[in-house]
Amino acid sequence: MIKKKWFTSLVMLLILSVTLMGCSSNSGGSDSSDKGGSSDSPEKVKLSVNIWAQPHEEEIYKTIIADFEAENPHVSVDFVVTPGDDYSTRLQTLMAGNRTPDIFYLGAGDTNFYVDTNRVLDITDLANDSNVLDLDNMWESGISRYTVDERIYALPKDVGPFAYAYNKDLFDAAGVEYPSSTEPYTWDEYIEVAKKLTLDKSGKHPDEAGFNNKEIAQFGAGFWWLEPAVYSNGGHWLNEDATEIIIDEPEFIEALQYVADLRLVHNVVPSQEQESSTNSYQRWLNGTSAMFPMGPWDQAAFWELDFDYDLMPWPASPNTGESRTWLGSLGFAVSAQTKHPQEAFDLAAYLTVDEDAQRNLMNRGAQVPNLVDMAETEYLETDFAPESKEVFLNVIKEQSQPLPHELTYDREWFDYFTQTVVDVYEGRKTAEEYVHDVKPELQRLLDNSIEKAKNARANQ
Question: Which CATH number fits domain 163-328+391-455: 3.30.365.10, 3.20.20.70, 3.40.190.10, 3.40.50.150?
């Protein structure tokens, strides 16, 4: 441990005086005694934590960290919240200046890169030796995001099951029965329901004569994510070992065209132009979109809605009969350069699994608990919305996959896809035309990513 100069000087003087008296003495340069003089008190430790958070999350984490400091009085924590849009840039700046926080957020898609560049601490042994961390009572789909070659490099801050919400008031007004929380709509059923919930300014539905798709007052749904459609249809961006782009396979093409046609043919979700004027999140909040994607992080914000809502599964593909979506996550990583690995790990574990901390996060609508037993009992029994919380748990357990870019060394290839797929959404290309046009460039970028990974590992 690094000690202040005055303390080092004091220690040297004490050693000298003891030596002159002919008494033996242990060196004081690396002991763990407290500066107050008690040999049983641990040395003072200061940790830095840098994350991003919504305002309500920030307040929760301040409380949790204060509790940790109270239980560990030798530890003080410098807690910094950086806006999400600036977080990555800020973290890279700190790392470049050798000022990496002891604990920071690790995105699941960044794990391989941060491991290969020696930026995160291997915490496997600390986790296995911990008397507070029960890996068997944590979501495997969370821990696995931060595990490389059977070594653990972060603890999941959360798992983010991406479910689907619906506005009960709009369903009631349209005379449409609420969807099931366990039996998903088929793709065709979803379209028919969405049409009944879509109205232009004159009150006409998409299939009615005179419907004006440029003057839509209420949409059946907000922006539709592509991943649930592709996964549900048995498709993917990548082959099994993430070395080949496979978007030209029929399952992917069909799913992409389905999502595009929700805009282009059926008029039940906003076009790119309509999305830019008023985004789907705002439409959901103001009650002019009947269905919308939702994660647990939205719970607290949605308690302020002026309408009732609940959860439903994502629509199931007619080819597989399955409903699939993606599962997000963030991890608490410990810096490989930390001077206090044990204390940093202890704080990361506290933020991850302490029962009171998890209960605080749960009751304030920030996340599904990381503790499986708490999620399957207390969380399901809470009386706050949404009512059908089991939809979140079903996604975690059996209805999800990681986002595509989380399977590769970097996301440059996927960013290129998201930038260019608008050609399909805006009707300039069919899904089939697009995938054949873009596949060579995606494969080139993926090959570059694979080569970067090889070079990084060779230089370790």
Answer: 3.40.190.10
Query: Does pTM surpass 0.85?
Result: yes
> Do 361 and 347 touch, CB atoms closer than 8 A?
no
Helix (H) or strand (E) holding 106: strand 103-107
The CATH class that applies to domain 44-160+330-381 reads alpha beta
What are the residue boundaries of the structural domains of the chain, listed by start? 1-43, 44-160+330-381, 163-328+391-455
Scanning the structure block, which residue is given the tokens 């007004």?
173
Q: How confident is the model at residue 339 (pLDDT cuts 50, 70, 90)?
A: very high
The single residue listed with the structure tokens 């990974």 is 453
CA-based nearest residue to 285, from 366, 159, 163, 165: 165
pLDDT value of position 312:
98
Please report the DSSP string for 346-360 in residue order: HHHHHHHH-HHHHHH
What are the structure tokens assigned to 306, written together?
A: 């002026």
Q: Which residues pair with 401 in a beta bridge?
A: 326
Helix (H) / strand (E) containing 156: strand 155-161
Owner of token pair 């040297």: 12
Contact 180, 197 (CB under 8 A): no
- The tally of CA atoms less than 13 A away on the side-chain side of residue 10 is 8
What is the arithmetic mean of pLDDT over 317-334? 97
Residue 368 · residue 159 · CB < 8 Å: yes
Q: Are strands 325-334 and 400-401 parallel, antiparallel or unpaired?
A: parallel
Q: Which amino acid appears at position 345 of this protein?
A: F
| Tokens, residue 26 | 């242990």
Helix, strand, coil fractions of the chain, as percent rounded to 5: 45, 15, 40
Strands (E), 272-367: 291-294, 309-312, 325-334
Q: Return the number of other C-beta atoms located less than 10 Å from residue 229's C-beta.
A: 26
pLDDT at 161: 97
